[in-house]
């Protein structure tokens, strides 16, 4: 019976995603990933190299997934309702992505894993804001890269620090996520200095 390499890699990556998002790179061991995936740790080293390289592959995969799931725009025009609403929904449904990014910042002290490839994910977002500014649809009093960063933060931070969102909510026991989502979209529009994009 032939060994299914891709299925094995997928099991390793799923286990590593859970381990890294729960414990961070420092708290995760290849032994734990091996146990969780049911794969021999030597095979993990063979496929992915060391723990840092495995973390980089996991994080890159998650960034690729969100980039495909929530593109900036299908038309080249920044659709704030679809983009910010999509980011808000994605982060709420996949809180592990923000955890991975936070763990990376805490663990590697500003060192960016696979920076050149990862810049591509963010370049499209900055470009969409820049295009909106050039077309007069988005205010120009703040640089495009800063606005793109703020949009990501506005949509995703709720899932990164749910305890703070809970404490600051006017009605923490009855949070209406549809209302919160709508408010986040409106705040993004206000941030961009626009009413209807």
Helix-strand layout with pairing:
Layout: H1 5-27, H2 30-37, H3 41-48, H4 51-69, H5 80-93, H6 96-108, H7 115-134, H8 144-160, H9 162-168, H10 177-192
Helix pairs in contact: 1-2, 1-4, 1-6, 5-8, 5-10, 7-8, 8-10
Q: How would you characterize the overall build of this protein?
A:
It holds the Pfam family TetR_N. This is TetR/AcrR family transcriptional regulator. InterPro entries: Homeodomain-like_sf, HTH-type_TetR-like_transc_reg, HTH_TetR, Sco4008_C, Tet_transcr_reg_TetR-rel_C_sf. Residues 29-48 bind DNA. It comes from Dermacoccus abyssi. By secondary structure, the protein is mainly α. The chain folds into two domains: 1-49, Homeodomain-like (Arc Repressor Mutant, subunit A); 57-192, Tetracycline Repressor, domain 2 (Orthogonal Bundle). Helices cover 74% and strands 0% of the residues. The protein has ten helices and no strands. The protein has helices at residues 5-27, 30-37, 41-48, 51-69, 80-93, 96-108, 115-134, 144-160, 162-168, 177-192. Helix 1 (5-27) packs across helix 2 and helix 5 packs parallel to helix 8 (144-160). The longest helix has 23 residues, at 5-27. The protein starts with a helix and ends in a 5-residue tail after the last helix.
């Amino acid at each position: 019976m032939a060994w299914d390499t891709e299925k094995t890699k997928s099991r390793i990556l799923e286990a590593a995603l859970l381990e890294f998002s729960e414990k961070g790179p420092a708290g995760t061991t290849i032994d734990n990933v091996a146990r969780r995936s049911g794969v021999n740790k030597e095979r993990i080293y063979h496929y992915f190299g060391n723990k840092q390289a495995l973390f980089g592959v996991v994080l890159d995969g998650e960034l690729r997934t969100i980039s495909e799931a929530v593109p900036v725009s299908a038309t080249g025009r920044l659709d704030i309702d679809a983009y910010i609403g999509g980011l808000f929904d994605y982060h709420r449904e996949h809180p592990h992505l923000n955890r991975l990014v936070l763990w990376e910042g805490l663990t590697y002290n500003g060192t960016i894993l696979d920076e050149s490839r990862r810049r591509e994910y963010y370049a499209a977002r900055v470009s969409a804001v820049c295009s909106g500014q050039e077309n007069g649809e988005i205010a120009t009093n703040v640089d495009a890269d800063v606005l793109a960063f703020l949009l990501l933060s506005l949509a995703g931070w709720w899932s990164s620090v749910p305890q703070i969102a809970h404490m600051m909510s006017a009605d923490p026991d009855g949070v209406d996520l549809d209302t919160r989502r709508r408010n986040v979209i409106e705040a993004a529009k206000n941030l961009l200095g626009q009413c209807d994009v």
